[in-house]
Amino acid sequence: MLALRDAFFSVMFPDIATCIGCKRKALDITFPLCSDCHQQIEYYDPKLACIRCGRSYHGGKCPGPNIGHVMALAPYRGYWKEIINLYKFKNYRYLHKGFSKKISQVLKSNLKAEIDLITYVPVTDKGLKERGFDQSHLIAKHLSKEIKIPFAALLHKNDDRPPQRSLDRTERLKGWEGVLSLNQPDKLQQKHILIIDDIYTTGSTLYQCSKKLKAGGAKKITAFTLAN
Ligand SMILES: [Zn+2]
Ligand SMILES: [Zn+2]
């Protein structure tokens, strides 16, 4: 039955059933790498990671903002970067299942018991229109089913801002005024919230989201991103 399903998907989605590295058969239809190429992804060990930025522990002061606890699956490079880009920009939206499975595997041995509610960093309405789906929403919702922790769409992003890298810190902070609003504030009171995002770069988006959630009554924030 499984072989039949794989055969069906390889006809329907030829690119996804083969490894993006070497074109051999992929691990499964939600994860387009063979086991050899998969080994090249440098997954973090959460026990050896900086809790402020999610990268491998680096000593010294972390430049990341204080969000609470940040976790990431792997650095944004190599095959991992390629897979994320297929997902975000090439409309391979069924990859959300592979991503949420990986996140759930990490959470099952770290933190799962402490989390009350799962949410995500939303794209703007304009972004949603352009892409046709919200990448972090899909992952968060599937993850919720996978690890049986409730899901809620807690945040709404109101507009598009200029690229954050081009602004200095003060301008960046000012640029956030009125951008985020809270949905269903009654749901987050005193909760430990897990917030899903795709890529952590400066951490400023996650910082603003966590600030909003805390101001709305959340007890604690843990962020989980695909890459950083
Ligand atoms: Zn391969
Ligand atoms: Zn750090």
CATH class of the largest domain: Alpha Beta
CATH architect. name of the largest domain: 3-Layer(aba) Sandwich
Shape: globular
Low-confidence stretches: none
Order of helices and strands: HHEHHEHHEHEEHE
Q: In whole angstroms, how far apart are the ends?
A: 37 Å
Q: What ligands can be seen in this structure?
A: zinc ion
Fold-level CATH name of the largest domain: Rossmann fold
Pfam families: Pribosyltran
InterPro entries: ComF/GntX_DNA_util-trans, PRTase-like, PRTase_dom
Protein name: Phosphoribosyltransferase family protein
Keywords: Glycosyltransferase, Transferase
Description:
It is a single chain. This protein has 228 residues and is of the alpha/beta class. The protein folds into 2 domains: 1-40, no CATH class; 42-227, Rossmann fold, CATH 3.40.50.2020. Helix content is 35%, strand content 14%. The chain has 8 helices and 6 strands; from the N terminus they run ααβααβααβαββαβ. The protein has helices at residues 2-12, 35-38, 78-89, 95-109, 125-131, 135-147, 169-174, 204-215; strands spanning 69-74, 117-120, 155-157, 180-182, 192-199, 220-227. The strands form 2 sheets. It has a 4-stranded parallel beta sheet. Strands 3-4 form a two-stranded antiparallel ribbon. Helix 8 (204-215) links the parallel strand 5 (192-199) and strand 6 (220-227). Helix 4 (95-109) crosses helix 6. The chain is globular and about 50 Å long. The chain starts with a helix and ends with a strand. The mean pLDDT is 88. It binds zinc ion (2 copies). One zinc ion (ZN) binds next to helix 2. Keywords: Glycosyltransferase, Transferase.
